[in-house]
């Protein structure tokens, strides 16, 4: 994996150094050694640090959350 400085590139983009919290039902947190990763179950991928901030603060208006809710209704 590509590295920038001493940190692997993925950590620069995805690592969060506070425990992220969102009331979105599709938001998942994984605890790693010294950092956290957040994942969206709608997008089925890890969230960048910028996206995590949006999930924490603006989850109510997230368009992906609406898509996730629609997908649950169709099941
Ligand atoms: S991107 Fe949207 S749907 Fe996904 S976890 Fe964040 S707020 Fe929820």
What's this, in brief?
This protein has 75 residues and is an alpha+beta fold.
Overview of the molecule:
The structure is a single chain. The protein has one domain. It is built from three helices and five strands; from the N terminus they run E-E-H-E-E-E-H-H. The strands form two sheets. The protein has a three-stranded antiparallel sheet with strand order 3-4-5, with helices on one face. A two-stranded antiparallel ribbon has the order 1-2. The N and C termini lie far apart (37 Å). The mean pLDDT is 92. The protein binds iron/sulfur cluster (SF4).
Helix and strand arrangement:
Elements: E1 3-4, E2 7-8, H1 9-14, E3 27-31, E4 36-40, E5 45-46, H2 49-57, H3 63-74
Antiparallel strand pairs: 1-2, 3-4, 4-5
This protein binds iron/sulfur cluster.
Attached small molecules: iron/sulfur cluster
N- and C-termini, Cα separation: 37 Å
Instruction: Report the β-strand fraction as a percent range.
Output: 15-25%
- The count of DSSP E runs of length 2 or more, i.e. the number of strands, is 5
Net shape: elongated
Number of domains: 1
State the major sheet.
3 strands, antiparallel
User: Would you tell me the overall average pLDDT?
Assistant: 92
Rg, rounded, reads 14 Å
Chain oligomer state: single chain
| Structure class | alpha+beta
Which blocks of ≥5 consecutive residues have pLDDT under 50?
none
Number of helices: 3
Order of helices and strands: EEHEEEHH
- Read across the widest sheet, the strand sequence of neighbours is 3-4-5
Helix content: 25-40%
